[in-house]
């Protein structure tokens, strides 16, 4: 019988054996367009997709950098989502596959998120513009207590 000790196993291991981390690094990344249909998604729902368009910067905010949040959105909504950039990167084409009520619900959620992010962006831009105008009106000798003045201006 062979001994079952760690010494026995280590002497037979090759020092150049691939580690899992090295193996992952050597495999080229999978294309985001090549996907396997999830087990929970019925094949029949792929036939009639819903397509909508939004600005690319909004799609990046909603779906995350490199569309990292798509799988979570798909799992929660039980719909398949594909996001492609069109029109030289200015527009994002969002394709939603699923049951009709799921497609409409997800479309409404995405459009409401887009409206919220647009409004938030406008509010932030107006606050920054007000802050710039406020800083221009300050006398140069009040720079020593500038953080307090900035906080007061933002509160107004």
Automatic annotation (TrEMBL):
GO molecular function, one term: RNA binding
The keyword Cytoplasm is assigned to this record: yes
Primary residence: cytoplasm
Cross-referenced InterPro entries: KH_dom_type_1_sf (IPR036612), KHDC1 (IPR051778), MOEP19_KH-like (IPR031952)
Residue spans of biased composition, Basic and acidic residues class: 1-21
Region called Disordered, residue ranges: 1-26
Localisation per UniProt entry: Cytoplasm; Nucleus
Keywords: Cytoplasm, Nucleus
Boundaries of every KH-like RNA-binding domain copy: 37-120
GO cellular component: cytoplasm; nucleus; protein-containing complex
GO BP terms, alphabetized: embryonic pattern specification; establishment or maintenance of apical/basal cell polarity
Similarity-based family: Belongs to the KHDC1 family.
Protein name: Ooep protein
Taxonomic classification: Eukaryota, Metazoa, Chordata, Craniata, Vertebrata
């Amino acid at each position: 019988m062979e001994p079952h000790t760690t010494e026995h196993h280590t002497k037979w291991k090759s020092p150049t054996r691939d580690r899992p981390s090295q193996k992952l690094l050597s495999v080229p990344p999978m294309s985001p367009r090549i996907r396997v249909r999830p087990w929970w998604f019925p094949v029949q729902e792929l036939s009639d997709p819903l397509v909508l368009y939004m600005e690319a910067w909004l799609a990046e905010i909603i779906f995350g950098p490199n569309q990292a949040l798509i799988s979570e959105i798909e799992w929660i909504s039980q719909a398949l989502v594909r996001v492609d950039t069109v029109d030289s990167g200015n527009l994002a084409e969002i394709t939603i596959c699923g049951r009709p009520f799921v497609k409409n619900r997800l479309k409404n959620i995405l459009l409401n998120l887009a409206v919220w992010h647009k409004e938030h962006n406008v509010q932030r831009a107006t606050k920054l513009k007000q802050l710039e105008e406020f800083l221009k009106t300050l006398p140069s000798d009040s720079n020593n207590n500038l953080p307090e003045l900035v906080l007061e201006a933002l509160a107004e």
